[in-house]
């Protein structure tokens, strides 16, 4: 293989979006993806295969510091975790870029304000063909461009839920979604949240930015290419990318390396590099400040009213995003889950729970997702042991989650749902993993500068959820994409032009 100008490691939201913005630059680019394209099989629309059998989960185990092993919910396909994401493409709120006091501590300020990223948010929304509607959400940040597509419509049971919440003085708002609902339902009448995308119904990293990138003949995608380490030479430049391709060990020596393997694996690659001593880690922050949203599922059940929604996930509530907690402190975001069924409940219920009861509950529930900010902490971290990954997740700000649940339980009961049940998500669910290789202005406290360049290696960029300094309390995909476009613009105008 001829040596490329740029190697991008990973084809998820970060890597694919960077690649799309580098298309047409004239640079020779190779994207190394450890997975393969996700095949269109019956399992992709099967509740049981996905949520009970774990058909798409990886065949690997991670460990906790005490040695306890668990199977992570990260996915290795072209398009990364976005292949199964809920396609929610929300902007961080403007306040999320500032220092903010929470019940569990302080969320630090970003190295730049919302206004710096705002134009790139608009470009990302167009790239992912976001469906949405402005003017409904009191926390909505300024938009210089409108959505180019109208919203995915509420189903009847959800339109009713929207009216019930509005009647209580709340501000239910339409979720901005990367979903062509007609195309999605043509492939099967299921939700898209948690279901793999094998067509064009969901605008994930593969179907949106990667499709754009691969129109450029100078950009090549190599699948089953598992990157293990990066080699840094004298002067701090990354001189080689070492990877295994279908059992054969290989290396590339590009001019630039863009690491976009995801918050967990990007940190692991850096920590394994440098003869096992780690690279890009003068700050000792690589792998640290791991964040994974504090979240729970909440079922609002009316046993006398059936919810016959197919996809359900079109509504959010941010009335308690910036306030509502003790002393008026922030709580978080509420949004709908994709419609659950008895298989999903069975996967999380005691073995003796009767199936007919689970089916009845699922058929009479409106299913919600509570999400609050996980604050960065240096002891919440990813570590490596050879090729193994150790996750030490130090949860924070849990009082916000319990406070949000209490608020919404009262609202749902007032809306006519006498039974309200909730269950937290655990470490097996990748609830928007971020941190681990964060941006900052000071190389003593952050591995990356505000344009995602490693302070220690001038030809290394890290562009994925790992670069985010904070988790906020909304889905991070659009923020990752916006930052990826911003970084790519810098690379084209400054790095490739030099």
From TrEMBL:
Its cofactor is FAD. Pfam families: GMC_oxred_C, GMC_oxred_N, NAD_binding_8. Gene3D superfamilies: FAD/NAD(P)-binding domain. The keyword Oxidoreductase applies. Signal peptide: none annotated. The keyword Oxidoreductase applies. Transmembrane segments: none annotated. Residues 201-293 form the Glucose-methanol-choline oxidoreductase N-terminal domain. Residues 429-484 form the Glucose-methanol-choline oxidoreductase C-terminal domain. InterPro entries: FAD/NAD-bd_sf (IPR036188), GMC_OxRdtase_N (IPR000172), GMC_OxRtase_C (IPR007867), P2Ox-like (IPR051473). Keywords: FAD, Flavoprotein, Oxidoreductase. One of its GO terms (molecular function) is oxidoreductase activity, acting on CH-OH group of donors. Belongs to the GMC oxidoreductase family. PANTHER family: PYRANOSE 2-OXIDASE. This is GMC family oxidoreductase. It comes from Pararhizobium polonicum. The lineage of its organism: Bacteria, Pseudomonadati, Pseudomonadota, Alphaproteobacteria, Hyphomicrobiales.
């Amino acid at each position: 293989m001829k040596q490329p100008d740029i190697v991008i490691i990973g084809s998820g939201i970060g890597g694919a979006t960077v690649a799309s913005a580098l298309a047409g630059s004239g640079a020779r680019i190779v994207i190394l993806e450890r997975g393969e394209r996700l095949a269109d099989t019956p399992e992709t629309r099967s509740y049981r295969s996905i949520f009970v059998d774990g058909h798409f989960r990886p065949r690997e185990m991670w460990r906790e510091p005490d040695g306890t092993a668990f199977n992570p919910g990260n996915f290795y396909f072209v398009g990364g975790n976005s292949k199964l994401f809920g396609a929610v493409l929300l902007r961080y709120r403007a306040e999320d870029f500032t220092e903010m006091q929470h019940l569990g501590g302080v969320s630090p300020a970003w190295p730049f304000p919302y206004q710096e990223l705002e134009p790139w948010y608009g470009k990302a929304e167009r790239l992912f063909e976001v469906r949405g509607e402005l003017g409904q959400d009191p926390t909505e940040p300024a938009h210089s461009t409108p959505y180019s597509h109208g919203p995915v419509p509420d189903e009847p049971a959800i339109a009713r839920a929207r009216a019930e919440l509005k009647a209580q003085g709340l501000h239910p708002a339409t979720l901005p979604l990367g979903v062509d609902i007609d195309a999605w339902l043509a492939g099967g009448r299921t939700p898209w949240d948690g279901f793999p995308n094998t067509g064009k119904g969901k605008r994930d990293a593969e179907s949106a930015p990667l499709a754009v990138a691969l129109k450029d003949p100078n950009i090549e995608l190599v699948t089953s290419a598992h990157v293990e380490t990066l080699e840094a030479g004298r002067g701090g430049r990354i001189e080689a990318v070492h990877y295994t391709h279908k059992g054969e060990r290989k290396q590339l020596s590009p001019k630039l390396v863009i690491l976009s393997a995801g918050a967990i694996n990007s940190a692991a690659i850096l920590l394994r590099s440098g003869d096992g001593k780690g690279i890009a880690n003068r700050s000792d922050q690589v792998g640290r400040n791991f964040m994974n949203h504090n979240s729970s599922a909440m079922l609002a059940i009316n046993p006398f009213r059936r919810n016959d929604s197919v996809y359900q996930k079109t509504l959010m509530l941010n009335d308690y995003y910036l306030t509502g907690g003790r002393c008026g402190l922030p709580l978080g975001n509420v949004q709908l889950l994709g419609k659950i069924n008895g298989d999903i409940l069975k996967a999380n219920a005691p073995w003796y729970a009767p199936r007919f009861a689970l089916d009845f509950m699922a058929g009479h529930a409106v299913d919600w997702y509570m999400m609050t900010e996980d604050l960065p902490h240096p002891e919440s971290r990813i570590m490596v042991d050879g090729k193994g990954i150790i996750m030490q997740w130090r949860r924070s700000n849990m009082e916000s989650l319990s406070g949000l649940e209490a608020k919404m339980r009262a609202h749902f009961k007032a809306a006519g749902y006498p039974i309200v049940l909730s269950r937290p998500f655990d470490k097996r669910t990748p609830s928007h993993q971020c941190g681990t290789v964060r941006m900052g202005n000071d190389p003593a406290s952050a591995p990356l500068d505000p344009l995602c360049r490693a302070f220690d290696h001038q030809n290394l960029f890290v562009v994925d959820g790992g670069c985010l300094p904070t988790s906020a309390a909304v889905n991070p995909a659009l923020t990752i994409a916006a930052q990826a476009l911003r970084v790519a613009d810098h690379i084209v105008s400054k790095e490739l032009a030099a």
